[in-house]
Amino acid sequence: MLLARFRTSGIAVLLAAGVILAASLTACGSAEPTPPPVLTLPESLPLAATATVATKLPRLPNDLTYLQAGKIWTLPAHTQQPKVLAEVAAGSIVDYRINRSGEVLAFRTGDDLLYVVNRTTGDRVDVQLPFARSFVGFTLSPDGTYLAVGDANGLYAITLPEGTLTEVKPNPTSEEGATTWIPTSWSDDNRWLIANLAVFDNYPLYLIDVRTGELRELMQGCVGEVPQGVWDTEGVWLATTSCGEPGGLHLVKPVGGLDWPVLRSTPEEASQSLIPYGWEVITGDRLAFTQYDLDSGYPTGLYWLDADNSLIPILTAACITSEGDRCLPIEYGFARWAPDGAAFSLYGVENDIVIGELAGATLWDVSRLLEGATNFQWSFPFK
User: Which helix (H) or strand (E) holds 68?
Assistant: First the structure.
């Protein structure tokens, strides 16, 4: 099945489809950023948990993208002026993904329409699944050449920019009710998908061979918890925590059979003392994650697992202090990291927003400037 495909040039206004693409979506950019050097960490770590209330958005080393007022915005690296990246003429955008190079953007509207745009070429794909049922989840491959989509019927892989659609797995039947695949990440070679299988209030995690549909269970689910897996160049980072009990993180190499080799892991002293969440692979064989304390032995905060498997506390505090001793809670907040680890965004449970830059050891409270903004994602500078 071939999906609708369009090519845009210059400043595109696609009123027929109800989608307005900003000029930056069709700029003549380079999709291959120069590999960044491994970030040198500041000498004084952890960072002081004090944020300056920003009167202007800070100049950052990477592009920061976010949702606000139904539009996708980007704050280009080294600038202080955000720009609209995509919007729809009627309705709003409710979710999106952008790949690490910043070249390919996928977004879903409130009317349940799904689009993919290449900012370099202007190619656009309108995703239309065979049964036109509501989208449950979607994720872009790292190089932006594939999109995985889950809906009420099954899991699909779409080649980009051709728009060729292939069914990977139908949603399985279950005595507990309807099930849906929620794809979360692709392997670097675009062969494997990590996906949760939503079964009522349970979300076991699976590894799926896109070519054959073969399944391998990575983690069993617990009611109310959503297991996570993140691709590295050598394997998959998984948590050893179970149903709220502390554990650690380890990098496993999925191979034949059930006895998968462990390539890396958190230090032994921390292997049963972490409640990690939202881990991301960053440049230099590093892994960034948020630690939830819950009396597990390690303070709440942001941590890195360095290339030598040492645990580096980036920011350890229950909250970040802002203007007037206002406390911006870290616990149960959601941190996202720039691909090289040079900056991060922290979205708090009370809608507080903090941006941090490691080189300057600086935190900014941008809650007022970005009021209502959500879904922060980072990419390399797109030029």
Answer: strand 63-68
Q: Backbone phi, then psi, for 225, in 5-degree steps?
A: -110, 145
Output b/e per residue, 104-115; b: 16+ Cβ within 10 A: bbbbbbeeebbb
Q: What is the pLDDT, as a whole number, of residue 206?
A: 95
Domain extent listing, the chain: 4-32+39-379
Cβ–Cβ contacts within 10 Å for residue 59, how many?
13
Taking a C-beta distance cutoff of 8 angstroms, is the pair 158, 1 a contact?
Answer: no
Please list the helix, strand and coil fractions of the chain in percent, rounded to the nearest 5, in that order: 5, 45, 50
With a CB cutoff of 8 Å and minimum separation 6, the contacts of 97 are 105, 106, 107, 138, 139, 140, 377
What is the CATH T-level fold of the domain 4-32+39-379, as seen in this structure?
Methylamine Dehydrogenase; Chain H (2.130.10)
Dist. CA 358–CA 179, nearest whole Å: 42
Residue with tokens 């989840």: 137
CA 203 vs. chain centroid, Å, equals 18
State the CB neighbour count (10 A cutoff) for residue 91: 14
Taking the C-alpha atoms of residue 86 and residue 93, their distance in angstroms, rounded to an integer, is 8
Q: What is the pLDDT at residue 200? A: 81
d(CA 235, CA 136) in angstroms, rounded, equals 26
Residues 20-64: pLDDT tens digits? Answer: 665 444 444 444 455 667 888 888 899 999 999 999 999 999 999
Cα-Cα-Cα-Cα torsion 144, 182, 167, 4, nearest 10 degrees, comes to: -50
Taking the C-alpha atoms of 220, 223, 225 and 231 in order, what is their torsion angle to the nearest 10 degrees?
20
Tokens of 159: 């080649």
